[in-house]
Write a structure and sequence with these properties.
The chain has 373 residues and is α/β, with parallel strands linked by helices. It contains 14 helices and 10 strands. The longest helix has 19 residues.
C-alpha cells in the first residue's frame, strides 16, 4: 500500500489580503478544505500559525471549535511558529520566541501540545533544529530533494520517501519526513497548477500511480497552503478550485493501493533505517525577497528594533516594556507583509502585498521603538 498524507500550513496573514478582511479566507478557504477531507475520509496534518489561531478564535469561534473537534478524526495539528516569519532573517533569540509563542498559542487556543513542525518556506539550519528540539518538537517536514542530497553525501542508496532520524548533534535528534514537490510526468508544483486549472486532475492521478510503482509501500506526502481553495482562485481568477479539489480527492480515495495516513502514523509504525544530516537551506525563495527593493525600509527598521531590544536587555530596563517590545517585533516578523519582489524559481514576482499588510509590519516595529524610548 502507498501511504498518502497531506500537510497544510495555515497562515491567515496572506500578503494579498488586506488586514481585517481575513474572514473570507476562513469561509472560502479553510472551511471548504476541511469539508472535503471529511467528505472523502482523507487525513491531513494542519500546521496553524499562532496568529492564525488567534484571528480564527476572534472572528469565527464556531469554526475554531470545529477544528478542535476534527482532531484525531480528520486532522492532526502541528506548529507553524507565531507569525510565519522567514527563519533565515531571524537571529537565534527571535526564532526561539517564534517557536515558544507559537506553541503557547497551540496549547491555549487549539488545546494541543504540538510535536511536529513545518518550516516556513522549508528553511532549515542546524541552529533551527536545535531550537526546535529544545522546545519539545519531535519531528519536522523537509523536502525529498534535501533528503536525497544527504543520502548522496553519506553514500546511502535507498528511497527518500520514508522517515529518517535527523542528527543535529551528539545529544539532539529529530525525526524527519519528506514532502514531494514532484511526481512522475508532472511539472513541479503540480498541486498548485492543478488547483488553478492549469493541470488536469487525471494527470496528477496518473502521476500518483507511477509514483506507487517507483516507490512501492512508501510515503507520499503532499504539501500545500491551507488557503489553497480560496487563494488559488483569488490569484488566478479560475473559479472552480473547490470542484478541482473535490474531483482530486474523490479519485484519490478510489485508488485501491492508497492508504490515507497522518504523518504520526508513519513515524509510529514504519521502520526507521537511516540517520542523516541535512545541509542548511535558506528556503524556497531568496533572502533578497525580504531585504531589498520595496522590502528594504522594513528590513532596516527591523534591525534597528532588534538592536534597541538587545540594548534594553543589557541595560536591565523594565522587563514589562521589553516583553511588549518583543511581542510587537514578533508581530512584525510576518513574511507576507515584508515581500519586496518575489525571488522564486517557481513563480517570480507572483505576490503583490496589500498596503495594510505591509503597514501592519511597519506599525508594529514603530510601536516597539516607541516603547523602548
Amino acid at each position: 500500500m502507498l501511504k498518502v498524507g497531506f500537510a497544510f500550513n495555515l497562515n491567515i496573514q496572506r500578503c494579498e489580503i488586506e488586514v481585517g478582511e481575513e474572514k473570507q479566507i476562513i469561509d472560502k478557504g479553510y472551511k471548504p478544505l476541511l469539508e472535503l477531507f471529511e467528505k472523502y475520509n482523507m487525513r491531513a496534518n494542519w500546521f496553524v500559525s499562532g496568529y492564525s489561531s488567534e484571528i480564527i478564535e476572534n472572528i469565527d469561534k464556531p469554526f475554531l471549535n470545529k477544528i478542535i473537534e476534527a482532531k484525531n478524526k480528520t486532522i492532526k495539528l502541528g506548529t507553524y511558529t507565531y507569525t510565519h516569519p522567514i527563519p533565515q532573517l531571524l537571529n537565534k533569540d527571535e526564532f526561539i520566541h517564534q517557536v515558544r509563542v507559537g506553541k503557547e498559542y497551540d496549547k491555549n487556543i487549539l488545546k494541543e501540545d504540538t510535536k511536529g513542525f513545518l518550516p516556513p518556506e522549508f528553511a532549515y539550519s542546524k541552529e533551527m533544529a536545535s531550537v526546535l528540539y529544545d522546545n519539545g518538537i519531535d519531528w519536522i517536514i523537509t523536502l525529498a530533494s534535501s533528503v536525497e542530497k544527504s543520502y548522496k553525501k553519506q553514500n546511502i542508496v535507498d528511497d527518500p520517501y520514508q522517515p529518517c532520524i535527523l542528527d543535529i548533534d551528539e545529544e539532539k535528534k529529530l525525526l524527519a519526513v519528506a514532502a514531494a514537490y514532484e511526481l512522475p510526468d508532472c511539472p513541479a508544483r503540480f498541486l498548485k497548477l492543478m488547483m488553478k486549472g492549469l493541470l488536469p486532475v487525471d494527470t496528477v492521478i496518473e502521476g500518483i500511480k507511477k509514483f506507487h510503482q517507483e516507490h512501492p509501500d512508501k510515503f507520499l506526502l503532499f504539501k500545500r497552503d491551507g488557503e489553497t481553495v480560496f487563494i488559488d482562485y483569488f490569484n488566478s481568477g479560475f473559479e472552480k478550485t473547490y470542484e478541482v479539489l473535490d474531483e482530486f480527492l474523490s479519485k484519490l480515495s478510489q485508488l485501491d493501493f492508497v492508504e490515507p495516513v497522518w504523518i504520526e502514523d508513519v513515524l509510529e509504525k514504519e521502520e526507521i533505517k537511516h540517520t542523516i544530516k541535512l545541509d542548511d537551506f535558506l528556503g524556497n525563495t531568496k533572502i533578497e525577497t525580504f531585504t531589498e527593493g520595496a522590502a528594504k525600509p522594513i528590513w532596516d527598521l527591523t534591525k534597528k528594533v532588534r538592536n534597541e531590544i538587545n540594548k534594553a536587555e543589557k541595560e536591565n530596563k523594565d522587563p514589562q516594556i521589553i516583553a511588549k517590545a518583543w511581542h510587537h517585533l514578533l508581530l512584525s516578523h510576518n513574511s507576507d507583509g515584508r515581500i519586496g519582489y518575489w525571488f522564486s524559481k517557481w513563480n517570480p514576482g507572483e505576490h503583490e502585498v496589500a498596503p495594510s499588510r505591509r503597514q501592519f509590519c511597519e506599525d508594529n516595529l514603530n510601536i516597539a521603538l516607541d516603547l523602548l524610548k
